Amino acid sequence: MKNALILVTSAVLISGCNDTSSFAISSSPIDSCGKENRTITASWSVQSTQVKTVRVFIKAPAAEEKPWTEGGPQASKDTGPWVFDGVTFVFRDQDGNELARRTAKLQKCH
Question: What is the reported pTM?
Fold first, then answer.
């Protein structure tokens, strides 16, 4: 069976503020179907004025978080072709507080 990466996105309310922020991971084009590893885009938009920097960490199943990238309150970045089912992207502010996490999930291709 072939697989494709599910797009994961949502809005969240950051504790202590009234602004809605969004965090997403999205797959590369549909032609990635059937490949074990994929390139994806991680993007975020934080509306809180308290958040100056967003740091993104990668966590593979049964592994510890590793730093991947960082940027301002609104940014996006493409991975290389190394994302596989179960890889989690953890978004943290400059103080290490978790803002959100998104996990890559595979879906069967049609």
Answer: 0.77
Query: pLDDT (tens digit, 9 = 90+) per residue, 57-109?
Result: 999 999 999 999 999 999 999 999 898 889 999 999 999 999 999 998 866 66
Mean pLDDT, to the nearest integer, of 10-15?
40
- Bridge partners, 27 (sequence order): 40
- Which residue ranges form the domains of the chain, and what is each CATH number? 3-108 (2.60.40)
Distances (CA, A) of 8 to 41, 42, 107: 11, 10, 12
Place of tokens 């999205």: 26
Taking phi over 0 as left and psi of -120 to 50 as alpha, with beta for the rest, 96 belongs to left
